[in-house]
Amino acid sequence: MERYQGTIYEALGGESVLRQVVEAFYPKVQAHPLIGPLFPENIDPVVEKQILFLTQFFGGPAVYSELYGHPMMRARHLPFPITPKHADAWLSCMEAAMQEVNIDPELSQVIIQRLRGPAYHFVNQP
Questions:
Q1: Long-range contacts of range 107-113, CB-CB < 8 Å, 24 or more positions apart?
Q2: What CATH number is associated with residue 56?
Q3: What's the rounded Cα separation, in Å, for the pair 73 and 71?
Q4: What pLDDT score was predicted for residue 3?
Q5: Count of CB atoms situated within 10 Å of the CB of 35
Q6: What's the pLDDT score for residue 78?
Q7: How many domains does the chain have?
Q8: What pTM was estimated for this model as a whole?
Q9: What is the pLDDT of residues 52-81, one digit of tens each?
Q10: Are 59 and 6 within 8 A, CB to CB?
């Protein structure tokens, strides 16, 4: 990330580009045979919360916490069976979404590395 200044959120281009990525991401998630069934049919509220969460997670305004309190993401994911294959699928969908939105490949890899920790932290099944 040496060639980028500031936060991942800023390097990405702020809310408008992050929204494009998340909006490209969820159709991929919904179509994925492994992780799609874990998500509700009405994905719109999930999209909006994900935009707010990733904004904060990548160094932008802390709007998620202001609206919903501490993210407590592991606790929020505990009701769902999540294996390492689920984490891999989620990350793969995110990588494909960033490619679709033409995010710089170097920045995309920085983002995937940043998301890898939380994705595997949510694993609760072998």
A1: 107/1, 107/4, 107/8, 107/11, 107/12, 110/1, 110/4, 110/8, 110/11, 111/8, 111/12, 111/58
A2: 1.10.490.10
A3: 5
A4: 60
A5: 21
A6: 81
A7: 1
A8: 0.93
A9: 999 999 999 999 999 998 888 878 888 889
A10: yes
